[in-house]
Amino acid sequence: MNTERYQRQIVLPDFGAEGQQKLLDAKVVVVGAGGLGVPVLQYLVGMGVGTIRIVDGDDISLSNLQRQVLYSTADVGKKKAEVAKERLKALNPEVSIEVTTQMLDGNNVKDLISGYDLVVDCTDNIETRYIINDACVANEIPFVYGALYKHEGHVSVFNYQGSPSYRDVYPDDSAKVDNCNEIGVLGVLPGIIGTYQAMEAVKVLTGIGQPLAGKLLVVDAINTEHHVFELAPITKPEPKKETSKDSWLTWQELTEMDLDQYHLIDVRSEVEYNQSHDDRFENRPMDELTTFKAEKEVILVCNKGNATRQAAALIAAQNPEVKVHQMKGGYSTQ
């Protein structure tokens, strides 16, 4: 062990040489070497995680550089994973770094994560996220989740010591999720969320602190607000309960329902709501849902179905006995 390199963390009483040795012995897969992956990789390599596999098939583009600060203008057109390895080895040559310059998919995921202790999801692709989740569940590997939406970021730890999996919290895998290319992102936000992901990885690998297992951290960067929500515990399904599929509604189904029996909520911002909306829905932006008390079942709508996933988790945390429905595909399918 290079005690000089890691001295600043070894002197921490709750970490020490034992915690450092756990990092040195650890093997981590980081899926995505972009906005979230860059800070995750920099800190895990710097702190001495022994073996890291980088999985990313993308090339570096000029538009990446405002947030993916590991790369330079001269790197445009090169493979992210290969350039990342070169820079990271310069940071800490003691770490073993493997690269896979292809995208993770259902055919290769088992081979890519087998034998590793942890997977860190740094993708902006929901299909890949479900593949990661299902493979981690099947192989009993925890994974650290991070996601971005405009000025907001989410962090959690799934499939860890009995905590929910990603699919437990977001059961429907058919809704489209906008990525940074479509909705934009301020360059600093991935750095904030990726750093949180790195911290959660360190906690899982070393056993220090309380990981965000069974919890969802929501960071509102533009208003400098942080909220931690408890995720519903896993319970065995009972016959009287509806399945997760029943919580997704089509617009045709909505017309056949007695809407007086429901709270109908449009979770978009006030600006988006004023531009266009369905008059049956009242506007309650995401930040208002943290204290929302539901007296009856809730139906949520947004543009494409992404924001309602997050809103449903917030409402469920505050109102665990209330059924929450979502409009499948949001206004894009109306």
Q: How is the biggest beta sheet arranged?
A: 8 strands, mixed
| Beta-strand percentage range | 15-25%
Number of helices: 12
Distance between termini? 60 Å
Mean pLDDT: 89
Count of strand segments: 13
Tally of distinct domains: 2
Give the proportion of residues in helices: 25-40%
Class of the largest domain in CATH? Answer: Alpha Beta
State the strand order across the main sheet.
3-2-1-4-5-6-7-8
Spell the H/E element sequence.
HHEHEHEHEHEEHHHEEEHEHEEHE
Q: What class do helices, strands and sheet pairing give?
A: alpha/beta
CATH superfamily label of the largest domain: NAD(P)-binding Rossmann-like Domain
> Low-confidence parts, pLDDT < 50 over ≥5 residues?
236-246
State the CATH architecture of the largest domain.
3-Layer(aba) Sandwich
Determine the CATH topology of the largest domain.
Answer: Rossmann fold
Shape: globular
State Rg. 21 Å
Description:
With 334 residues, the chain is of the alpha/beta class. The chain has 2 domains: 7-230, Rossmann fold, CATH 3.40.50.720; 244-333, 3-Layer(aba) Sandwich (Oxidized Rhodanese, domain 1), CATH 3.40.250.10. It has 12 helices and 13 strands. It has helices spanning 7-10, 16-25, 37-47, 80-91, 109-113, 126-139, 166-169, 180-183, 188-206, 251-255, 270-275, 306-318, and strands spanning 27-31, 51-55, 96-100, 118-121, 143-149, 152-158, 215-220, 225-230, 248-249, 262-266, 282-283, 297-301, 324-327. It has an 8-stranded mixed beta sheet, sandwiched between helices. The protein has a 5-stranded parallel beta sheet with strand order 9-13-12-10-11. α3 (37-47) packs parallel to α4 and α3 crosses α9 (188-206). It catalyses: [molybdopterin-synthase sulfur-carrier protein]-C-terminal Gly-Gly + ATP + H(+) = [molybdopterin-synthase sulfur-carrier protein]-C-terminal Gly-Gly-AMP + diphosphate. Catalyzes the adenylation by ATP of the carboxyl group of the C-terminal glycine of sulfur carrier protein MoaD. InterPro entries: Rhodanese-like_dom (IPR001763), Rhodanese-like_dom_sf (IPR036873), ThiF/MoeB/HesA (IPR045886), ThiF_NAD_FAD-bd (IPR000594), Ubiquitin-activating_enz (IPR035985). Belongs to the HesA/MoeB/ThiF family.
